Amino acid sequence: MSEQIPIKILPSEAKKNRNKTQRVHIQPAEEHGADYHPDRSQIYVRAVKGSLETFRRFFGFFFLALFAAIPWIQYNGQQAILFDIPEQRFNLFAITLWPQDLTVLAYVFIVAAFALFFVTTFAGRVWCGFMCPQTTWVYMFIWCEQKIEGAANKRQKLDQRKMDFDKFWRKTAKHTAWLVISLLTGLTFVGYFTPIGQLYIDFFTFEVGFWAGFTVLFFTFCTYGNAGWMREIMCIHMCPYARFQSAMFDKDTFTVAYDAKRGEGRGPRSRKATQEQLKAKALGDCIDCNLCVQVCPTGIDIRNGLQYECINCGACVDACNGVMDKMGYAKGLISFTSEHELNGGTTKIIRPKLVGYAVVLLIMTGLLIADFMSRKPLEVDIIRDRNTLYRENNEGLIENVYTLKILNKSQTTQTYQITVKGLENPVFIGAQNVTVAGGEVYSLPISVAVDAYSLTEAITPMSFYVSTTQTDGTVVDLTQESKFIYR
């Protein structure tokens, strides 16, 4: 319990004024009377340049390009990655996952969860700041705003003035760009669940099916609303990660933090001011320019301490470092650091919590790999005839009827050989060699007959052995247990 970060209670004035330089109410309260309570105010995010911003843009662009390109990749003449829900199968290049492979999906989610826990314990909410789709799309929409409506101060003035032709065309162009991006996002997302090439053709020729078309429009609306209008509301009020993240933090977690010992007290000063003059005025390195607030996508003041609204995007770090450069001060007034470093200590990288997450992550990753390695591209299900337990055929043999369902979980056509084991001189009635296309299920009705004198029990254990030789010479086989009933 001693490793928990103490809660810092902010004065009401700090909460009230922390983002006053960035938030603007479009309609003043005076116009509506004293009882007017404005809804969410608008945040005008100021552009920032710096190493973290460059890295974040590259990172976001890379994964955005990956998201857009993956559905178009072809493998063996078909879409390489396709989550075909109606057919209940997921194609991942040469691997096809079926409902029977639910453990693989469970392992994937568990590995992802512990990877998130590990990264959060080590570096805070870097997922939110650098990889979260919400953050990526919000910054993409803000980029459109900057290109069409101008910088943050110009966007403020544009929203405050009355509608004219210039404002009309800029607003129209901005929302059109947002809708185009949202539509492409919706089409790409649905393209993971239905062949994307045909989806584009059907959608733009108005021949798309109801559910595919509805899903595209639904995700278009969600993207437009989340990234264009809700923005920080998603991060602050709707995302559960912001609420439980503090359970993974400790005093050695790297988070975006302000060095209050170095920065306080705040205040403007001349660049030529000497250290003696600054000490006389009790001024620290913070010049109170508020740039760290103006570039924050959630509108917080990082100087108020660790806050759950902070997404660790590092925009305030770049903004502050730029100011420190201009003032001739050392960088790092705002930086990725730990509470121990802020208090003059050193950060412990190797610690029990982090090691625990790493060990569990390695174990679950190992189990996921083992599950994949032991997975056979063949599934056999045996269904006995429920109408007749057994019958005596014209040759005086006792006959049992079965239906074999052979699932080819590979992507290529395979020919399977079927034999019976566990019975004395069984007679196989039906095809013993069947060809099944990749990703298909083949139902094979068969009968097995045995001389009654060789049966010593009413129920005799037996099995069906199904095998195939793949193109690379690998033999894939499976033995499925069953029973032969007599009397």
From TrEMBL:
Instruction: List, alphabetically, the Gene3D superfamilies matched.
Output: Alpha-helical ferredoxin, Immunoglobulins
Identify the keywords attached in UniProt to this record, alphabetized.
Answer: 4Fe-4S, Electron transport, Iron, Iron-sulfur, Membrane, Metal-binding, Transmembrane, Transmembrane helix, Transport
One annotated GO molecular function = 4 iron, 4 sulfur cluster binding
- Keyword Kinase appears in the UniProt entry: no
**What is one term from the GO cellular component aspect held by the record?**
plasma membrane
SUPFAM superfamilies listed in its UniProt record: 4Fe-4S ferredoxins
- In what residue span(s) does the 4Fe-4S ferredoxin-type domain sit? 276-305
Query: TM spans, by residue?
Result: 58-75, 104-124, 177-196, 208-227, 354-373
Official protein name in the record: Cytochrome c oxidase accessory protein CcoG
Entry-linked InterPro entries: 4Fe4S_Fe-S-bd, 4Fe4S_Fe_S_CS, Cyt_c_oxidase_cbb3_FixG, Electron_Trans/Redox, FixG_C, Helical_ferredxn, Ig-like_fold
